[in-house]
Amino acid sequence: MTKKSFLIFFSIYLLDKDSCYGVGSGTIAGIIFADVAVTILIVTTTYWYASKRRQKKENADEVYMNVRANCKT
Which first-to-last residue range defines the signal peptide (predicted)? Predict the structure, then answer.
């Protein structure tokens, strides 16, 4: 590495050092907590809608079975 290229890289390092954004541990913990909370919300909502849909399907089958049973008598 030549002296000129060393000076260029060193000056870029000095200029770029202050532009680095530090993230605190509280911010990271907040992001992780929010991610877990949103994930749990999505899973719970999906499970709830799937359960309602499955229950609707089971109830619909029972109604049709009762109608068929009534027609046979």
Answer: none
